[in-house]
Amino acid sequence: MITKRTFVDQLTVLEDGQLQIREATQFEENGTPVSEKSYRRYVRVPGDDLAGEDELVRDVGNNLHTPARIANFQAQRNARQQGRGNS
Predict the structure, then answer these.
(1) Is-contact 67 59, C-beta < 8 A?
(2) Distance CA 20, CA 40 (A)
(3) Rounded to an integer, what distance in angstroms lies between the CA atom of residue 56 and that of residue 52?
(4) What is the DSSP letter of 15?
(5) Strand ranges inside 14-87, DSSP E
(6) Domain that includes residue 31, residue range
(7) CA dihedral for 42, 43, 47, 50, sign (positive or negative)
(8) Strand 19-29 vs strand 2-13: parallel, antiparallel, or unpaired?
(9) Burial 37-71 (b: 16+ CB within 10 A, else e)
(10) How many structural domains compose the chain?
(11) Separation CA 35–CA 65 (nearest Å)
(12) Residue 76's Cα: distance from chain center in Å?
C-alpha cells in the first residue's frame, strides 16, 4: 500500500523568536520511500496561534514564545513598519 507521509524535518529558531519550518512530504510503500521528498517552507512568529501545527513546532513555540518575547517581537515589527512609512 502506498501512503503519503508529511512531517517537519527542519525547524530553525531565529534570534527574534521566529520559527522557520520546513515540512517534507514523501510517498512510501510498506514503509519504504518510493519518491523523493518535496518541501514546503513557512514561518511562525511570536504571537501566532500554533494549535494546528506539528507537535514539535507547538512544543518549541509554546516554550519560546513567552509574553515578553511576543511583546518584544511586536514592538520591533511596529518600529520597522513605522520606519518604512516615514521614507
Answers:
(1) no
(2) 11
(3) 11
(4) T
(5) 19-29, 32-33, 38-44
(6) 2-85
(7) positive
(8) antiparallel
(9) eeeeeeebbbeeeeeebeeebeebbeeebeeeebe
(10) 1
(11) 36
(12) 19
**CA-to-CA separations, 34 to 6, 22, 25, 26, in angstroms, rounded:** 14, 20, 11, 8
Would you state the cell numbers that stand for residue 80, as one nine-digit string?
520597522
* Amino acid code (one letter) for 25: T
C-alpha cell at 48: 501566532
pLDDT for residue 66: 96
Nearest to 5 by CA among 20, 29, 19: 29
What pLDDT, in 10s, does the model give residues 27-82? 999 999 999 999 999 999 999 999 999 999 999 999 999 999 999 999 999 998 88
The pTM of the full predicted model, rounded to 2 decimals, is 0.83
Nearest one of 16, 24, 27 to 72, comparing CA atoms = 16
**What proportions of the chain, in percent to the nearest 5, are helix, strand and coil?**
35, 35, 30
The grid cell for 51 is: 494549535
